[in-house]
Amino acid sequence: MKPFKNISDKWNQFGQGALSQQTYDIKLSLDAAKSFQLLRLKYPRLTDEILLADLLCAALDDFEQSVPYVRGNNVVAFDEMGDEIYEDTGITPKFLKLTKEHRNRLEKVT
Question: Most buried in the list 8, 17, 64, 68, measured by CB within 10 Å?
Answer without folding.
Answer: 8
